[in-house]
Each structure stands twice: as structure tokens, then as C-alpha cells.
Amino acid sequence: MIELQDIHKSFGTNHVIRGFSAQIGKGEIVTIIGPSGSGKSTVLRCINGLEKHDSGTILVEGVPVDRTKRSIVDIRTKVSMVFQRFNLFPHRTALENVIEGPIFVKRENVDAARKRGRDLLARVGLQDKETAYPGQLSGGQQQRVAIARALAMQPSAILFDEPTSALDPELVGEVLGVMKSLAGEGMTMVIVTHEIAFAREVANRALFIDQGVIVEEGPAREMLAQPKQARTQDFLRRVLHPM
């Protein structure tokens, strides 16, 4: 469903992505792990054209990702993204945030969008928060609204960019629970995360990247439990057993 071939991306003199190649199949859940600054988030942003890759090819269901083409709008409806910092509109209610894309991007009927928006808020356990503004919600609740907003576009895949890293520890579980239910429903997901136990449980495949290249990849449970590369072993040791 998503294919990346020899992707390179630089910011000035900083060569962030150095020949990244991967394939994500329909219904597959792939987690990307690695140290800060290794290019994980940049890979996600290149997939749906938020960043323009310098060279290489990215295909979504066979269509090249090119942010200068009209096709990028269609790609962004097929591949939704959930950000680390929620990115909700502070002046809009939870329901209004959820239905913004379907109404203004996909030109859906307002009443139909509202009905589905309410259903999606119920799906993430926020049926009683549709009139609440982001400032009235906890971080975990805001992130669940963001997930409902991503689902409202009826995407083929969702990209998660460290969706729990901005949350207090006690709020992490409620977001991971929603993501786990999506995994059980067969949603295609690419997840950048430091939640190794969650990745091991939910993901089909794991990629460890460092300095813009894939150091190791394999079945998530196997690789995250018994990595073969010394660099992967060192990273997981530091994440799982911080000093």
C-alpha cells in the first residue's frame, strides 16, 4: 500500500534521511523506532507530503507522492496523520475538530459528517465531550479527538508520530487502548513510538533507524525482544532500562 524507494531528505547541510526504503502492506502495522534526530518523524511527513523528499520515490496505492500535484489532496485523505502535539483547533469543539476535514476537504454533507463524527467520538470513548473545547480536555482526551479526526477522513492508513510522548504517564494507556482497537480492526498503521512494549504487542514489523538509515528490521516481537545488531541492542537497553 505504501512504498518508499531510496528516500533522501536534507535540511540545509543536515542529511536526515539517507536512502530509506520500505514497504507497508494493507492491514500491516509497522513501528519505527530510533533515537531522537534519527529521521523517524521526517519519514512520516514525507509519506503524506508534509515534507518534500529530495530524491527517491514514495508511492501510496501506486500513486507517486508529489506535493506540487493535485493528487496530494487525495493521498492525504487516504493517509491521515496523528501528531505528537494534537494540532487541534483551539476555537472549535471536539466535534467541530473531527468534522472539519470531511466537510471542507471532502465536501461531505454536514448532517452526515456530524452523525459520523459523533459515532467516532463514541468509538474513542468521548461521546460526552462533543461540545468541549480542547482547552477543557486532558492531553489524553485531546489525542483521542485527534485520532477520531484522522478516522473521519475514512483513511486507508494512519501515520502516528509519537502519539503518547506529550502525555503524562497516567494518560498514555487510554490512547494506546484506542490504537490497539484500531489494530484489531485491521487498520494499516505506521507508528513512530518509544512505547516498546506496546510496539512489541501490536506491530507486525519493526524498523530501527539511526542517522537516517535502517539498521535493523524484522518481526516486531522477535526484533524488539532479541535484536541482532549491536546498535539496536544498545538503543533498546537504554530505552527499557534508563539510568
Coarse structural class: alpha/beta
The largest sheet is: 6 strands, mixed
Outline the low-pLDDT stretches: none
Mean pLDDT: 94
Report strand %.
25-35%
Number of continuous helical runs: 9
Write down the Rg: 18 Å
Amount of helix = 25-40%
- Provide the spatial order of strands within the biggest beta sheet: 6-7-8-3-9-10
Q: Identify the overall geometry.
A: globular
Q: What is the number of strand segments?
A: 10
Keywords:
single chain, 6-stranded mixed sheet, 4-stranded antiparallel sheet, 9 helices, 39% helix
Describe the secondary-structure layout.
Blueprint: E1 2-11, E2 14-24, E3 29-33, H1 40-47, E4 55-60, E5 63-64, H2 71-78, E6 79-82, H3 94-104, H4 110-123, H5 139-152, E7 157-161, H6 169-184, E8 188-192, H7 196-202, E9 205-210, E10 213-219, H8 220-225, H9 230-240
Parallel strand pairs: 3-8, 3-9, 6-7, 7-8
Antiparallel strand pairs: 1-2, 1-4, 4-5, 9-10
Question: What features would you describe in this structure?
Answer:
This protein has nine helices and ten strands. By secondary structure, it is of the alpha/beta class. It has a six-stranded mixed beta sheet with strand order 6-7-8-3-9-10, with helices on both faces. The protein has a four-stranded antiparallel beta sheet with strand order 2-1-4-5, covered by helices on one side. The relative contact order is 0.17.
